[in-house]
Amino acid sequence: MMHATLLLLLGMATGSAQAALPSAQNCGSLQNHYGPFDYRTQRDRLERVEAYHFTLGVQALTRGQSTSRIGGDLSYLMRTSPNHHRGLITVMRYAEKVGKPHPDDLQYSVDCLFERALRFQPNDVVARLLYVQWLDKQKLRNEALEQTGIAGQFARESGISHQNVGMVYLDLGNAAKALEHAQRAIALGHPATVLVERLREAGAWREPDPAPPPASAPASAPASAHGS
Predict the structure, then answer these.
(1) Does residue 182 sit in the same domain as residue 85?
(2) What pLDDT, in 10s, does the model give residues 173-214?
(3) What's the structural domain count of the chain?
(4) Which of 93, 122, 151 is the C-terminal boundary of a domain?
(5) Domain hosting residue 47, numbered range
(6) Which residue in 8, 80, 170, 224 is a FRET match for 87, CA 20 to 30 A apart?
(7) Are both 112 and 54 inside the same structural domain?
(8) DSSP string of the chain, one letter each residue
């Protein structure tokens, strides 16, 4: 189900511990001649970059565009926007296609690209959950759970982020935490329909406890009677 969750995260994309991330010293400076830009809020600044370096051929992993090397175009894209969600998904797929976590024509390894993404925007829940999926593919389950917990902290008052965190927890086999985030999403006004259905199918859904009734105002003391 992890692949389905990855697609859901992509469709819904809108100081902390750094479990399993390589050191920043080994993953290069974030300074760039253009950008870097936050994929969540500055996507309009990336249109030209995507037109030249994130073409359909690059996304399909069939051919590069500007450099004729897929890794060269992806490297340019990820320098311009280190937390580019679709770019991160593509570099994971590229590493899987070539069979190693650091393809020869990619400037940084996949682990370094996630380190750069989360150094650039630590509160990017989608980027962090994509990293969780990469860790899970590398069979680093403890590290994946730790990063999911960090993502849950950054979800804060976002119902959709809590649903995404819950989906990943369920993929990792932690139904109790998935339920917790589903109920939090609902409390914040997000129905979390897909997550709730998956919890029902797993026999792990439980309706939230009813809210306690509002405390009644204390009764006013009766007025004292005064005899004549």
Answers:
(1) no
(2) 999 999 999 999 999 999 999 999 999 999 999 998 776 677
(3) 2
(4) 122
(5) 1-10+30-122
(6) 170
(7) yes
(8) -HHHHHHHHHHT------TTPPPGGGS-----SS----TTT-GGGGHHHHHHHS-HHHHTTS--SSSS-HHHHHHHHHHH-TT-HHHHHHHHHHHHHHTSSS-TT-SS-HHHHHHHHHHH-TT-HHHHHHHHHHHHHTT-HHHHHHHHHHHHHHHTT-HHHHHHHHHHHHHTT-HHHHHHHHHHHHHTT---HHHHHHHHHTT---PPPPPPPPPPPPPPPPPPP---
